[in-house]
Amino acid sequence: MRIVAILAAIAGIILGTCVVGYYGFGAVANALLAIGWGGFAIVCLYHLLLYVVLGWCWWVIVPPPRASRPWLFVASRAIRDSGSEILPLSQIGGFVMGARAATLFGVAAPVAIATTVVDVTMEMLAQLVYVALGLGLLVYARPEAGLAYGVGGGLAVTLAVAVAFIAAQRRALDLFEGFARRIAHQSLPAATARMQPVQDAIHACYERPAGLAQGSALHVVGWIANGIEAWIALALMGVPVGLAAVLTIESLLYAARSAAFFVPNAVGVQEGVYVMLGSLYGLPPETMLALSLLKRARDIIIGVPVLLLWQGLEGGRLWKRGARPASRAG
Question: Is residue 43 part of a domain?
Answer without folding.
Answer: yes
